[in-house]
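W.,

You were right to be curious about this one. When I first looked at the sequence I had no strong expectations either way, so I just let the prediction run and decided to look at it fresh. Below is the sequence, 544 residues in total, followed by the output.
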Amino acid sequence: MSMHRLSLLLVPACAAWLGCGEAAPSSEERSPPGLPVLTPREGTAVISQDDVLPGCGEPDAGTGAGDAGTPDTSVLVTADSRYHSSAGVTVVPESLAGRDLEILIPHGIDFDRRTGTPVAGGMRFDNVPDGEYFLRANRLYFLTRARHFDLGLNRIGRPDAVYTSIMESTASLSFTHLEPWQDWTSTYDPGSSLQATSADVDLYAPLSPNEYPTAGATTLEDPVAWVYSGSGRGLPALDATKGDRLYVNQLNSVGAGTLPSGGPLVYSTVVSSLHPPAFSFTPDGTTSLPLSGALQPVAQQPFSMEWRLSEFTRWRTDANPTGTLSTPSLSLSPAPFGYQDGWVGYQGELLTLTLPRGEDGVIARRLAYGNPYPSSSGVVGTVGYSFRSATPVVVGTRNHYPSGGIYVIDRLDHLIAGPLQPSISPPRELRIDGVDAYASRVVGTTQPVFSWRPPVQGTPKAYVLSVIQLVGTFDANPTLRFYVPGDRTQVRLPPNLLLPGTVYYARVTADGSPNYEPWRAPYITAELLPNVSADTYSAAFTTP
């Protein structure tokens, strides 16, 4: 994701606050109630190369005509949901009443704050002077000067679908004509698995038999299996009268020669699928989801790739001077309704390839994937390489490994048109209050300044600063994120965000995606392709 270069028409206080008064040196935790548990793509923005920011010198969006002699100082925030289905795109306005939204206006090293008033179609903030401000949506902070900010979402499925609070349910499975079942061997050779998906409603759901079939079996009978929601929402109610249908996909491991290191190269892909007729089912925590039928073989579609792992691993020390190589991965997923609005909705995997930690070199290979979906759907590829700290940070009973990565996401035909390699490298020389952030220490304040240098390769359109709290339980790590344009190399945190005596680490993402606009519509533009990013990450630090 990327942001576009903001204008330098900034007051001196803003220059001191963000570091935007300095010349640029040469050269990753999915939210407000009702908003998604994800980040604008991260999980990941281009303000074009104009001299003036969007919203500066333009009519104020959404506020109507005003007195030409009295500038409008209101900001309108909206959050329409855009439901993508076989019937097209249906826009449904959402109420923002009760949402955790706030505007923070930089004022020296502090911020002036504004609360909003719910209005028809959104929330209005008054007395916001011309210039930049942060819109805070729960723990996400978007730097903008827009007079209309869109927190809307793309969703898949019909807009009248009902989603329950049930995240997992029993399932009764009765399948024949499976491809011969494979046992799990390792993360890199996972054997057979089953997934249920639907684009009629928003459903991605791994299936877990209570007793797995024996190796080589082609049938499965299990009345007490489990289905898990993987979409971040509760399991949907299925309605036969609405035409709700599912796919059940079987993935198997496929060997494809050897790795540069000499080990086996094995990937997983869809090999058989079932598309039963529409039926009704409402998850209630007791009734089992009934799934049965004969799976059909899925034709394999070949493609060639040259994956230059060494073009990822060469940036390890920029990501963190003492970090280690972690896991390279490649995956293909369906784009249910094509590419017009980018990668909308998650419908599981068509192919996954996870390599051993530290794998390097070049992989030039011809692979194949199964795709049971209509020809109108697209295929999106994600390639990445993660890095992590060499030793864990122990908090309570939990080991944490500060981490980052380099990622490229695009439609498959574009992704493999050339070598798989990054177009942007990580930011460099991350500092906290001017001190090397790659060495663990106790910082001097709970309102530190984070600074960095631009990447060697590529031009960031945006930076995302993530400040990640390391907790002693196995709950999710609370994360603050700040989205700033690519000509900024410094962020001062607002006061009272970091807890005293608490362990954190920071990650700064350089984003070179050409279509992301977090100053205007972070969620819907985050899904536009391509998406390219690279991270640098700090050592753990402790607040006083």
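Here's what jumped out at me. The radius of gyration is 24 Å. And, maybe more interesting for your project: Confidence is low (pLDDT under 50) at residues 1-67.

Coffee later to discuss?

I.
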